[in-house]
Amino acid sequence: MWLVSDYALGRRVLSDRRFSRAAAVAPGAPRLNSAAPSPTSMMSLDGSDHARLRRIVAAAFTTGKMTGMAPLVRGTAADLLAGMSRLDSPADLVSSFAEPLPVAVLGTLLGVPVEDREIFGSWVEVLFDITASSDLEKSRQRLRLVDYMSTLIDRKRLRDDDDLLTDLIRAHDGDALSQAELVSLGLALLTAGYETTVGQIGLAALAVLQEEIPREFVKDETRADALVEELLRVTPSTAISFPRVALEDIELGDIRVRAGEAVVVSLLHGNRDDKVFIEPELLRDDRPSAHLTFGHGIHRCLGAPLARLQVRTALVELFEFFPALRLAEDGPAAPAVVWKDGLITRGLSSLRVTW
Which residue from 27, 318, 344, 353 lies 20 to 30 Å from 208 (Cα-Cα)? Predict the structure, then answer.
């Protein structure tokens, strides 16, 4: 596999249709691990098949829809922080806030019953798992996810709910989706929107706690959006793209990528390319929003507006509720910051804080 760390070349790979996602999940394609994504997933399709599924889902992520979601996100964040304030200090910000916030938001958006929301949290990392678990464990988790989503769809057919998964079921019943596409699409929305957002909230909070940016920026409405974009650029939870396979020989910079070879884009390094970003390691609120964290081209993340909403709301509510929030003291038995590893994403397994 080729790894692209250059910003301009990364954008080209992500938008050039000769670099195929569908070919990357075909039998015999080069892979990061043995558990390839489903070939019916929207993330695994090219061309008209991808466009068809994307059109079905896109209406759920418009600016208007996200504006309507804002009170839910804000209210959920406030409730979680109130609950966290009742815990003994120090407490883990990941388990008490960064994880349950996206679970609640995605659960409401998709229509996942409240009693089911905690169970999929331990399963969804499998989509991003490279070396964190064995091949057998990866396969078992994927089967659990497919079984859960299939069962949930069957249950929701008997109801008439107002949520995204019910809309997808109606699209299936109208012959716009196959059953396999329906299950894969539900899983893609659930898993991709959960793990990456959990990671992004934790990383953003850590950047503020480590004083990489002044706290007053978080409270400044005129700077908040630009601040979130910089946090997304400098500390992205999505480290590398899903692989793509060249459909023909392609010149990429000084390299010739041969047909059948795979390419992965390092979004993390592209976001810090000093040919594009002056002082790329620094968080500045005067940059144009041109990072690669949500991808580029036809596979650009549909859920980007919802992710932005959650990260911004999480930061504003967190430091308003806990103005004196700080990292807990580090210790060998209880480090303040513990990173996840073995995943294609970046994130924290725990972030101990005190107030």
Answer: 344
| pLDDT value at residue 198 | 94
Give the Cα separation of 187 and 210 in Å (integer). 35
Over the chain (355 residues), the average pLDDT of each successive run of 10 is: 97 97 93 76 89 89 87 96 95 96 92 80 70 80 87 89 90 88 88 89 95 78 84 92 96 96 96 94 82 94 93 94 94 89 89 96
Report the run of H or E that residue 201 belongs to, with start and end: helix 179-209
- Tokens in use for 28? 């015999």
Tokens of 287: 């940059």
Burial (CB count <10 Å: 0-12, 13-18, 19+), residue 230: buried
Per DSSP, which regions of 80-137 are E strands? Answer: 91-92
Q: What does the buried/exposed string (b/e) look like for 20-37 if buried means 16 or more CB atoms within 10 Å of the residue's CB?
A: bbbbbbeeebeebbebbb
Short-list 91, 80, 95, CA closest to 354: 91
| Cα–Cα nearest to 344, from 264, 190, 198, 239 | 239
Per the document, the length of the chain is 355
By the 8 A CB rule, do 185 and 50 touch? no
Residue 39 neighbours by CB under 8 Å, 6+ apart: 22, 25, 26, 45
* pTM (predicted TM-score): 0.91
Give me the sign of the Cα torsion angle 93, 103, 225, 281. positive
Report in angstroms the alpha-carbon separations of 271 from 188, 192, 220, 230, 295.
Answer: 25, 20, 24, 10, 11
Amino acid present at 310: Q
Contacts of 43 (CB under 8 A, 6+ apart): 21, 37, 188, 192, 242, 299
Contact indicator for 355, 327 with CB cutoff of 8 Å: no
Question: Residues 353, 91: contact at Cβ < 8 Å?
Answer: yes
Q: Are 351 and 94 in contact (CB under 8 A)?
A: yes
Q: At what angle do helices 47-58 and 164-173 cross, to 10 degrees?
A: 130
Contact by Cβ (8 Å): 103, 123: no
Backbone angles phi, psi at 138, to 5 degrees: -60, -45
Asked if residues 204 and 235 have their Cβ atoms less than 8 Å apart, the reply is yes
